[in-house]
Amino acid sequence: MNIALQKTFELLLIILLGILLQKKVPKKESLGGLKTIILSIALPATIFLALLKIKLDESLLVLPLMALCFNFLMFFAVRYLLDFSIPIHDENKKRTLNMLLPSLAPGLSCFPFIIAYLGDDFLALAALADVGNKIFGLIILYMLAMYWYRKRAEKSNASNKSKLKSLLLSLLNEPINMVIIIALLMLAFGFNITSFPEFLQNTIGRLSVIMVPLVLLFIGMAVRIKFSDFRYIFQMLTWRAGITFCISAVFIFLLPELSTGMMLLLIVFPQSSCSFWPFAHMSAVKGLEDKDGQDKPTFDLDFAVSILACSLPFSTLLIISVFYFGDYVANPMALIILGIAMILFSLIPKGIKAVKKKTKKPEWKNGIIKELELDE
């Protein structure tokens, strides 16, 4: 069996095991304990290790800048175009989508296939591009989540100075933010992971290893997908993929001298599944809301878990398809056509709804025909 496919089946099997464990772990308190382990130990260790492995090279800075540019383009597309295509009326779900859809998790959904189809050299380039994605997902999205939380927080008599102090303390109390600050300071002074004693390197590595299975188990155990949510999620993921193909087409059009391998990298990297990091930020906000006693949450965490559960297999199938068709996909016109087709496909339910609204059903009442709109 293809190594990349085998890796995919392994990841999906862990999610399936999590789903099977739902009856064994019915209480949210138990899931909360698992989430605490992920957010306080496994994820910080993974981030710390990833940041300290970065080798800064000025000639390759264009790759993380391109990834960061994609993140921002997707964020603005989700914020200003998604509601026109797929209307969602719940504000907390809109904010959840603004956090998740622009984020990328290439380590889970993309890197195994890059190794299998393109080789280690392209994997190194993808890992470097992921630095820009990390900056967006770990820092910018966290700041955005905290901004929305503070904006919605109940008005109090506290001064702006005390509010700023509270925000800074909440930032420093998060393990993820602490390890990012420490790692960036170490990189600035020329240190990396090899600067630690070997036993400490091994400890950080072991804690990092447990992150992927724990996250996948948590997704499987926590997911509760309603049919209505699944329909919306499939539409949104299709719309996201279509917009992403169009953005990749623009990058490839602006860089016509790229090899086929580099073009495929620019296509599959942005098609990575949604990242777990925004969920970590939203969970941190939920913790602050529980302390403040806020009734209306800023984000919909159940909806977020459902998106994460659907995003991984969806992105995996897309990435496999891109590599399968290879040269046929690696040109701007094909990507534009494919992207527009996927966007239009995601709009089919909206079109059906519009047709139903225009269809009138005649009804006799008191000798007069009354036109009624058909129910959906």
From TrEMBL:
Q: Where are the transmembrane segments?
A: 34-54, 60-78, 99-119, 131-149, 170-191, 203-225, 237-255, 261-280, 301-326, 332-352
Keyword Transcription in annotation? no
Q: Which UniProt keywords apply?
A: Membrane, Transmembrane, Transmembrane helix, Transport
The record's PANTHER family line, in alphabetical order, gives: AUXIN EFFLUX CARRIER FAMILY PROTEIN, TRANSPORTER AUXIN EFFLUX CARRIER EC FAMILY
Descriptive protein name: Permease
